[in-house]
Design a protein that fits this description.
The structure holds two protein chains of two kinds.
Chain A lengths: L1 E7 H15 L3 E5 L3 H4 L2 H6 L4 E3 L4 H12 L4 E7 H7 L1 H9 L6 E5 L17 H6 L5 E4 L3 H10 L7 E4 L4 E4 L3 H4 L8 E3 L5 E5 L3 H14 L4 E5 L2 E3 L3 H10 L3 E8 L4 H12 L4 E6 L9 H7 L4 H6 L3
Parallel strand pairs in A: 2-3, 2-4, 4-5, 5-7, 6-7, 10-11, 10-13, 13-14
Antiparallel strand pairs in A: 1-8, 6-12, 9-11
Helix pairs in contact in A: 1-8, 4-6, 11-12
Chain B lengths: L5 H22 L4 H5 L2 H11 L14 E4 L5 H11 L39 H14 L6 E6 L6 H12 L5 E7 L2 E2 L2 E2 H4 L5 H7 L3 E6 L3 H13 L5 E6 L22 H17 L1
Parallel strand pairs in B: 1-2, 2-3, 3-7, 6-7
Antiparallel strand pairs in B: 4-5
Helix pairs in contact in B: 1-3, 1-4, 1-10, 3-4, 3-9, 5-6
Classes of the chains: A alpha/beta, B alpha/beta.
């Protein structure tokens, strides 16, 4: 893990979009007056004829994307997660998910790691909302290389996708070569420890890896599972971990209701019932502060994970 | 094949109305009022105006119709069946379990349905997306979108209007079914919509006002709309909710109610009489 050269997944998204636009002329990008923050501005500058800024009108943006897709376009739609999954939820439901249209909703600024903007802008329910929609593939990527891989990979699926991205800069976990083996719907196991499985997604994967190293020094061997696809979730891997390790801990920058912890619990309660320890926002809204401070405050950082073992 | 004879179009519109009543009666639910009010407009679009071929419902270069007021599905299904997209017998299955004719139109279930709709306020945005895509692809498609007047109380409609105007979508033709009634009563009283024409003018639309039941005017207005360059058009069609079945006309009560057997017989009898007159 490279903690020196951190990159925010929104940044990786912006760059990957430009590359995707070079190779596929059906890619169109939509934004709602946030292109400098979501990083779609990179695509916009390069391909102005394939970029549509709808202004501050997220509901309309989802509908326009739906219409574009019926003509064979592959729209990548971006805004902050709270305005995508939240404000335009019913447009996503009825105009995109139900008709199974080929729209990629790439929502940045998810979770408390938005930081200083505070609770109104910290989306903590999006995974729950999006995974509840039939036809929707739900992804949440953890680093630069994985995000760039995902942005391209989802263009190959014919159907709606929700990709959750973050503002906070996070360490590089994977190199380009490793992403060649990635598959949508398949989790990534890092380490073979049997004392516990730390199942994480997005920004909490790097925190879990930090915790893994600290715990190792104390003689506790854990494995980390990076769930980049929350739906369809990798049932086999989760069941395997439950069988092979003593504990299952989930950790996410999301409400503990409806998110990764719930998705993991859904699998285990039916297939291999074990206790699931859920780390995340305990059904509360966020607040202002620096991203790192907030992760500590809400106990989803490496220290909080390590403390689970004391 | 294009139908140009006015009496022939009027006859088709009446047949479409009979189909609507049959559907709603058999389903024992559905929305007859707002379906009857758009029967003439839909008839002109599908039989006289749109560049479509019922044998090629997925032709990428076809014109599109988005029925944003998706609850008027009985009218759309009736027109599509009459046009030959699917067997007329299927209309009997409307809203029933196992049928593809869902309460609100589903583009993946019914040939000829260009967009899944039903949740009010969303169809115009999809139409804007289609119109932009057609321009990007240089496909030359016309996109028609039918809105209810109550429906334009939804804020998303005005977001979409802004986008249509900004993108100079002269290939977009919106039709407002201005029957002046919504579920809870008169449109002005329920939602407070005043000066519809001025509202659309200020959003940069070419605004045309017509009688939505006069076949001649409907044909003329679409011709005028096609000649407009650089901006989207909205046709404000003055219509009568329940048009063609006298006891349903201008009654909000018939927005979402099926006729009983007696009412059904009366309605069919009246429509059959009009058919003979034509």
């Amino acid at each position: 893990m490279d903690c020196e050269n951190k990159v925010a997944t929104r940044e990786s998204y912006g760059k990957a979009l430009e590359k995707l636009g070079e190779n596929n002329e059906n890619i169109v990008v939509l934004d709602a007056d946030l292109s400098t923050a979501t990083k779609t501005e990179i695509f916009a500058k390069r391909f102005p004829d394939r970029f549509i800024n709808v202004g501050i009108a997220e509901q309309n943006m989802m509908g326009i994307a739906a219409g574009l897709s019926t003509f064979g376009k592959i729209p990548y739609v971006s805004t902050f997660a709270v305005f995508a999954a939240g404000r335009a939820y019913e447009q996503i439901r009825n105009s995109i998910a139900y008709p199974k249209l080929n729209v990629k909703i790439c929502a940045t600024h998810a979770g408390i790691t938005v930081g200083e903007d505070g609770a109104t802008h910290q989306m903590l329910e999006d995974i729950g909302l999006m995974r509840g929609l039939p036809n929707m593939t739900v992804m949440s990527t953890s680093d630069d290389a994985q995000t760039r891989w995902a942005v391209e990979e989802i263009s190959k699926i014919n159907g709606p996708v929700y990709l959750r991205l973050c503002r906070m800069k996070t360490p590089k976990i994977y190199n380009e070569k490793e992403t060649e083996k990635f598959e949508i719907g398949k989790g990534i196991q890092i380490g073979k420890g049997t004392d516990a499985s730390i199942i994480a997604t997005g920004v909490t994967v790097a925190e879990s890896l930090k915790a893994k190293e600290i715990l190792k020094e104390q003689g506790i061997n854990v494995r980390v599972i990076d769930i980049h696809t929350i739906k369809p979730i990798d049932k086999d891997l989760i069941i395997k971990c439950a069988k092979e390790t003593k504990r299952i801990i989930t950790v996410e920058d999301h409400n503990i209701i409806g998110g990764l912890g719930t998705a993991v619990s859904d699998v285990l309660s039916e297939e291999y019932p074990v206790k699931v320890e859920k780390m995340g926002l305990p059904d509360v809204f966020g607040r202002s502060g620096k991203a790192e401070e907030l992760m500590r405050y809400f106990k989803i950082d490496s220290t909080a994970i390590v403390n689970k073992f004391i | 094949m294009k139908v140009t004879n006015i009496e022939a179009l009027e006859k088709i519109a009446t047949e479409v109305r009979i189909g609507i009543i049959e559907e709603v009666y058999n389903a024992k639910s559905g929305h007859p009022g707002g379906s009857l009010s758009i029967a003439d407009i839909l008839t002109v679009l599908y039989f006289n105006q749109m560049n479509i071929d019922e044998k090629k419902p997925n032709d990428p270069n076809r014109d599109r119709l988005v029925l944003s007021k998706g609850h008027a599905s009985p009218a759309l299904y009736s027109v599509l069946a009459r046009k030959g997209y699917f067997d007329k017998e299927l209309l009997q299955t409307f809203r029933k379990i196992g049928s593809n004719l869902q309460g609100h139109p589903d583009m993946n279930k019914v040939p000829g349905v260009d967009m899944t709709t039903g949740s009010l306020g969303q169809g115009l945005s999809a139409s804007v997306g289609m119109a932009i895509a057609s321009k990007m692809n240089k496909a030359g498609c016309k996109i028609y979108c039918i809105l209810g007047d109550g429906e334009i109380e939804e804020g998303q409609i005005w977001e979409a209007c802004m986008a249509a105007s900004k993108n100079n979508l002269d290939n977009l033709c919106v039709i407002l079914d201005n029957n002046n009634l919504q579920i809870d009563g008169e449109v002005e009283k329920v939602g407070g919509l005043n000066n519809i024409t001025e509202k659309f003018l200020s959003f940069g639309f070419n605004v045309l006002n017509i009688n939505g039941h006069d076949i001649n005017s409907i044909i003329d207005v679409f011709t005028t709309a096609k000649q407009t360059k650089g901006k989207p058009t909205i046709i404000i069609a003055k219509t009568i909710k329940g048009k063609g079945v006298s006891f349903m006309e201008n009654k909000a009560d018939w927005h979402g109610k099926a006729p009983n057997e007696e009412e059904y017989n009366l309605a069919i009898e009246e429509l059959n009489k009009s058919l003979l007159k034509e």
